[in-house]
Automatic annotation (TrEMBL):
<feature type="signal peptide">
    <location>
        <begin position="1"/>
        <end position="20"/>
    </location>
</feature>
<keyword id="KW-0732">Signal</keyword>
<protein>
    <recommendedName>
        <fullName>DUF1353 domain-containing protein</fullName>
    </recommendedName>
</protein>
């Protein structure tokens, strides 16, 4: 049985407060975008005092995840994340009790958004890779709008169930002041982007990888695939 609209609205406000003060994103009219490719989410070790561990987003070498939507100049904007550490949606525990607010529910959309932050930090610190430099023109507001577009793309493709409260609230949260402070943080470009041992473990875990045996011979543990998503 669906909860009354008032209860849903109250839950959304509580979750928004937990995530951060929300900014403005026109979720219902977000530009239409499309996903393609595959991604793997891998567990590569224990986390800190909280959380479920240390996770890596790993693109499929043969068919990497990408998200394409209209650009401001009329040309398509294609976002293709590179290997990076992730915790999914960074949803506080208090928010995860609500339907649609799990940290992995919109995993593909979260990977696109996480990648924009990695690129932003490395551009700010003056040490971007080629793919990161290609994201330099994306603004903070655009990053939130892109997440909204990505969530809506998952919904319209039937990959996830419709949940306007979750989609709208999460999109608004990443447009808020706490997210903005993180967006403008200097000294946050990870060095290295991914530890070499973790990279080797992840590459060896990709289904069909030719590096699995070599990794085991070298004593490199093979990462555990905990999520696999494709289009």
């Amino acid at each position: 049985m669906r909860p009354p609209r008032l209860a849903m609205f109250t839950a959304a406000l509580a979750t928004c407060s937990a995530l951060s003060a929300c900014g403005h994103v026109d979720y219902n009219n977000a530009p239409r975008g499309e996903f393609s490719g595959n991604l793997f989410v891998m567990w590569v070790g224990e986390g800190g005092a909280s959380g479920d561990g240390k996770f890596l987003f790993v693109p499929d070498p043969g068919n990497p995840l990408s998200f394409t939507l209209p650009g401001d100049d009329g040309k398509p904007l294609r976002i293709q994340p590179q290997m990076m550490y992730t915790d999914g949606g960074s949803i506080p525990k208090i928010g995860q009790v609500f339907n649609g607010f799990g940290p992995w529910g919109y995993a593909r959309a979260y990977m696109i958004h996480d990648w924009l932050y990695v690129a932003r930090h490395c551009n700010l610190d003056g040490m971007p890779t080629g793919p990161e430099a290609g994201m330099a023109a994306i603004s903070f507001q655009q990053s939130a709008d892109i997440l909204a577009s990505a969530i809506r793309a998952l919904v319209t493709s039937g990959r996830v169930k419709e949940n306007d409260v979750a989609g709208r609230t999460i999109s608004g949260a990443v447009a808020g002041p706490i997210a903005r402070e993180l967006w403008d943080k200097r000294g946050a470009c990870p060095q290295p982007r991914v530890a070499e041992m973790d990279r080797l473990a992840a590459e060896a875990a990709i289904p069909g990888s030719s590096q699995r045996r070599a990794a085991r011979r070298a004593g490199v543990p093979v990462a555990m695939v905990v999520g696999q998503f494709g289009f």
